[in-house]
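Lab manual, section 2.4: Encoding a predicted structure.

Procedure: take the sequence of the chain (64 residues), apply the prediction step described in section 2.3, and record the output as structure tokens. A sample record is shown.
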Amino acid sequence: MTSNPATTPKAPVEPVAPSLDDCCRSGCTPCVFDLYEEAMERYRKELEQFQKLHGGSPSAPGKR
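Recorded output:
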């Protein structure tokens, strides 16, 4: 039996970190770095949940 790609669970995708140039240094609230940290917290929780349900750690595209 082959797996159907449409039903194969997908691991969460790690957010891309902003570069130093993405910050305007004006003291914005929230700053792009604050938003990134929030996204990383969500990602870690989703990844932990994925690993509990599907076991192991997902392999990142291009990495083995």
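Check your result against the sample. Confidence is low (pLDDT under 50) at residues 60-64.
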